[in-house]
Amino acid sequence: MSTQERLRDDAKEAAELITSIADTVDRGSGNLKWRHFKGTILSVIGWASIIFGLGVLAILIIDVINRATGIFTGGQNWLTWDFFNNFDSRFAQRAGAKAAIVGTLYTISLTILFAFPLGVAAAIYLEEYANDNWFTRLVEINISNLAAVPSIIYGLLGLQVFARWLMLDRSIITGALTLALLVVPIIIVASRESIRAVPLSLRQASYALGATRWQTTWYVVLPQAIGGILTGSILAVSRAIGEAAPLITIGALTFVPFLPRNLFDIFTVLPIQIFNWTSRPQDDFRALAAAGIVVLLAILLTINALAIYLRIRYQKRY
Amino acid sequence: MAVTDLQKQSSFLRNTREKLIQIALLLAATVSILTTIGIVFSLLFETIAFFSEVSIIEFLTETEWTPLFSIKKYGIWPLLSATLLTSAIALLVAVPLGLVAAIFLSEFASDNVRRTIKPLLEILAGIPTVVYGYFALTTVTPFLKNFIPTLSIFNSLSAGIVMGVMLIPYVASLSEDSLSAVPNSLREAAYGLGSTRFEVATRVVAPAAISGIVASIVLAFSRAVGETMIVAIAAGQNPRFTFDPTVPVMTMTSYIVQVSLGDTPYGSLSYYTLYAVGFTLFLFTFILNIFSYWMVRKFREVYD
Fold it and tell me: What whole-number distance in Å separates Cα of residue B86 and Cα of residue B71?
């Protein structure tokens, strides 16, 4: 094709594009006031959708606090010292969430211990070491797919691999390993983003001083990226704290009236305890579930506040 | 002489350490692949065991699911229909609200409003699902009963609506990202031709961002299909082949929860049903995830 022909084709294409845009705009013409008013309508509906979502959130929180403490409409306050200090019981008045709260602390600490080093190491490999080859691309597609696999499927994996094949049974370790696999993809994605944001010039300066790749990573890149890595990891862990489905699947018990003696002991966690109380028909147990929800939401709120604090504290601009 | 030896030795140590660290990091990256292999194989093994006792034709054509009764029937349709019903209700809530919110935030709202509202909306995605389940059962269902007196205590309507609220930020955030990524030159061109803000948003920006918008909807759908605690608490435990949103039903995920709560002996047929249902669920979400990945790649408009 000669240059002239190509130019002619380009011009024809441009002309078609302009006609089509003009057509589109034409169809919208008419009463100018009405055309602008449609924008106002969209803004109103936009605000309405946002207010609906946030309104439901507000009602949910107020409703749960009210059921737990009776603060707005009167009624028994279930969020007492006994609630934190008693084990579960068949009698609502004597039931508490001690085993569930301690179980959550144990399980989540172990989950962090397994997932954080693994996720950050994988992120470092993908950002600082990997070449752009089929293996890297496979790992990348795989991670984005894993992040969208339903959590209950991880439960089935944990049941089969950790509980049966490794014979860890329905222990805290099985629960923590299962949750770790669930959050590792989230930690990898967040850590990679944070590592990628460290400017190349810092790495080049480090190499110019004779540092090796690992020295550069450890002493230069990671200290710069740690804020984002911690923020992302904390958010991932807060997801694990709220998970009930995978732990129910591996067989975490719903009624545990004692503290775990070691890491191979059976256990329960706060979300499962809430589920258990919710599924009992008596109103008193529903109120206990509300008290559990208030505690769970308070934990999550604290953790998210920590993440926001870290994000601000480590924020750097280049 | 001694100095060169020392240098040689230290550079050898250094190289070995570098190599070992690289291998350790590579192994960490490989864990994600092992997870996928683990998921596929653990599901596949028990699913094959299941289909050696139940024919796949019965699984796909039977319309009753009664593996825990004396007369056992293994048709996936009751579980599948419940999953699709609750997901459809959730999408009916999340897609319109999420999309309007996304277009509003990206094209109409000021920077300040966007920066405040987006994280606030994302709180909705951070609330544990067991909390949503509780809310659906104890608050939304009694509220809906005022308008629909025949509504059962357990139903897919309130479970679906609450799930939809949870999914608003998934649709809104991802769609807003892809709307914001449309280059300003397109908007300016449309304004130059006399368009109003509404016309720019709906006829130029939204079509240009369509791949991201569709991907966000597909991802929300995939979340809804795999969502467990809301439906297990609020939608019931009754497997039946129906699309009536007011009666108790049982989704695939609720079934897995129900069997897990009971004491199912390892190696029994009801143990295998866990994995057959789990495998169906995994296939479903896997296809949706791949589809959304492909959508983004295939239909992404690239602007220089």
Answer: 28
